[in-house]
Amino acid sequence: MARFFGRYEHSLDDKGRLILPSKFRAPFRAEEPNHGFLTPNTDGCLALWTPEEFEVQMTEMQQRVADNPADRNMVRMWASTAHEVEVDRQGRIAVPSRLRDFAALSSDVLVLGAIDRIELWDPTRWEEKVAPEEQRLVSGTLD
After folding, report:
1. Residue 2 placed within a domain
2. CB 2 within 8 A of CB 27
C-alpha cells in the first residue's frame, strides 16, 4: 500500500495540468493504465487516490450507506464528483475545471502527502486552514 509524505510547491499549466512530484508517481504506474482518482475533500482541497486506495474508500462509502441511510446523499455527491485521471509520461494529471473551482486552484498548488492520499491545496486556503496548528507545532504546544 502506497504512503505519501512531504510538501511540494507546484503550479497548474495553462491547460489545467499539474506535475506530480517524482516521489509520488510510482504508485500510479503500478498497472496499466497509469491512473488515479481525484475527489473533493471536505476540507476544501482535492484528494488524489491510488486505484487501490480508491477501492478502499468506495468500500467504506458503501458500508456507510448500508449502516446509515442518512449518509446516502453524501456518498452520492462523493461518487458523482470523483474523476479518474491519467498520469502521463511527464507525471502530469489534468485537473477538471469543476474540481479546480471547488478547491480554488488557479495557479500555485501545494501538493501534500497525507499518508493514504495526496492532497492538492490552494496555498491561501491551506494557510487559513492549517496555520494555527502549524504554529502550535513549531512552538511545541501541539497536544
Report:
1. no
2. yes
Query: Among 22, 27, 24, 13, which Cα is nearest to 100's?
Result: 13
Which residues are CB-contacts of 78 (< 8 A; sequence separation ≥ 6)? 39, 40, 61
Summarize pLDDT for 17-59 with one digit per residue, the tens.
999 999 999 888 766 678 999 999 988 999 999 999 999 988 9
Report yes or no on 91 lying in a domain: yes
Interval 44-103: pLDDT, tens: 999 999 999 999 988 988 887 777 777 788 888 888 899 999 999 899 999 999 999 999
**Which residues, including other chains, have CB under 8 Å from residue 131's CB and lie 6 or more apart?**
none
- By the 10 Å C-beta count (0-12 exposed, 13-18 middle, 19+ buried), 21 is classed as middle
Report if residue 76 sits inside a domain: yes
Distance CA 108, CA 50 (A): 23
Residue 1 inside a domain? The answer is: no
Closest by CA to 95, choosing from 117, 27, 72, 106, is 106
Is 119:112 a contact under the CB 8 Å cutoff?
yes
Q: How many domains does the chain have?
A: 1
Supply 91's cell numbers. 507525471
